[in-house]
Amino acid sequence: MRSAQSTAGGASAELAAQAWALLLDQSDTIADSITLALFERDAHLYERMGPELRVDVRESTRVHIRRGLEVLSGQRTSGNPTAIDVWRETGRRRARQGVPLELVLNAYMHGARVLWEALIARSATAPDGLVDDRVLLAAGGTVWSNLDVQNAVLIEAYRREAARLQRHDLQRQQSVLDGLLEGRGADPDFADEARTVLDVGPDDAVACVVALYDDPPDSLGPAEDRLDRLGVVARWHVRSGVYFGLLAGPLPDEPGIAELFAPYSAGRMGVAASPDGIAGFATAFQLATRAAETLPRAGCGVVPVTERLPEVLLAGSPQVAPLLLARTLGPILALPEGQSRMLLDTLAALLRHGGSPTHAAEELYCHRNTVIYRLKQIEQLTGRTLTDPRDKLLLELALIACGSA
Residue ranges of the RsbT co-antagonist protein RsbRD N-terminal domain (predicted)? Predict the structure, then answer.
């Protein structure tokens, strides 16, 4: 019984192959009808990608149909690439051309359907008994099972090539970002490369976002979605352990950028605009990094550099801070911790309220006379007075330097 079924199945497969062979002399005509249908259905894609893709698709479809019919009819021509080689190469080429994978698979599905319809039409003129319903059924099973193999080969080749291209593009992006940090943005030739690789022009508004994380994230997810909706280009990289991004396009101001990232901050982040575009990106990176470094090491948040200028100035001159503290708050810092903390808090409150003991007392929940007494202690210990603008500035900077502001 099994032998009879196997023989019958083999006969059906042989007859199906003979049926498919009837279409070999029509392969180019069938391929051209498929191509025209694809051009009409996806006209926007082919118009956008230019005439070169049209030429390639027409020739590729002819090769596919010829090789496909050779496989289906069992009449492969020696010396020609196999159908699998053709499918694999097409997958790689479409990935390089930027054709969406979904459109490629839809084209293959359409081609299989047209082939099937062409066989049905041809069966009407075939010799009697050569293509009956049983043979058509077997031929249909062959073409659709072939499509499954075809799609699997193409998808793997397409994805491998797309991944390779993505790695290459990412490497180029990172190389250009490294060049910008090295100050090459003012070089016209390098600026042209940045336009090509990063999609950022020399006249575009540019800002830098720096994030100081122990473990840099893969992305800033929701924040990047918001940037996309604003039409802002974002390119990210890690250099010397610092995670940073170049933002370009219709940017908000620095506080606006900081506000955009604030809900998603998991570490210390700084923002700095580059008034000179990509030519000044290296400076923006340095300023954004220093702004982030002014935040408490164990904390998180996002700060624009324009709101942390005193802190950035002190951080940029590490030799100045110890000298400043020694010449201003040194005697207070030498007191026992409790007394020192009380005087520093009082000084900070007085500075926040323009030197007013009344308002400072309200903030500190103590009597006005207590604040006046502490102010006299501060002035005696430091040799500075809040009525002198220069002394006031030095005391403010000293509080920032010791983290008490």
Answer: 28-172
State the burial class of residue 127 (Cβ atoms within 10 Å of its Cβ: 0-12, 13-18, 19+).
Answer: exposed
Query: Quick check: pTM over 0.85?
Result: no
Look-up of token digits 């050569």: 130
Where does 2-166 sit in CATH, by number? Answer: 1.10.490.10
**Across 215-242, average pLDDT:** 78
Closest CA to 206 of 223, 194, 214: 194
Tens of pLDDT, residue by residue over 155-190, are: 999 998 888 877 778 888 899 999 999 999 999 999
Mean pLDDT of 338-350: 92
Q: Would you give the end-to-end CA distance of the chain in angstroms? A: 94
Helix (H) or strand (E) holding 143: helix 133-181
Task: Kindly list the domain boundaries of the chain, sorted by start residue.
Answer: 2-166, 189-307, 320-401
Apex 22 CA angle, 17 and 24, nearest 5: 95
How are beta strands 206-212 and 233-239 bridged, if at all? Answer: unpaired
CATH homologous superfamily of 320-401 equals PucR C-terminal helix-turn-helix domain (1.10.10.2840)
The pLDDT, as a whole number, for residue 374 is 92
Q: Tokens 């020739």 appear where? A: 59
Contacts of 304 (CB under 8 A, 6+ apart): 254, 255, 257, 258, 270, 271, 272, 291
What three-state secondary structure class fits 208? strand
